[in-house]
Amino acid sequence: MPVVKVKRPKLSFGESIYLTAIVKGLWITFMHAVRAIFGKARGAESLHSSGLGVTMQFPEDRWDDNMPSYYRGAPALVTDETGRERCVSCQLCEFICPPKAIRIVPGEIPADDPWAKVEKRPEEFEIDMLRCIYCGMCEEVCPEQAIFLRKDYLFTGMSRQELVHDKKKLYEIGGKRVGLVNKWNDLK
Known about the structure:
Strand content: 5-15%
Distance between the termini: 62 Å
Low-confidence stretches: none
């Protein structure tokens, strides 16, 4: 097979020192600076900004109104309309969690309980919010639709232990889901 040599085009002096590209970049930067000084920056009206930037005045202003519909926040457990735990302790979320932030200790349901047919429920359920990467894999793999990613993004604590949410805290955050809940419908 013959080898074909391709000749490079000859560059002018200005092109060889990249002078036009540098001037164009400086011009764009200058125009952004002028717009920021004399006018409102892009997005300033929707964030109630002063106009010199899009810095939000936290905690007075929050992202809550500007959250995209696909935002994945903190995971939480939900109950059904009767207050029953949806989680059947299958541990799929624990196994699929990439940073291993979920820890489940399954426990059996007593035979006299009306929901004894479920076989088991979590005795302990913990999510370490410092390890969680909010990927949503736990939500997708859950067969009982017991775990959902909420729009919450603000969790604080004075110690690491405060950010390890136990079962009680996760149900408190998640609340109750009424009716048929499909993960991808408007009830989410």
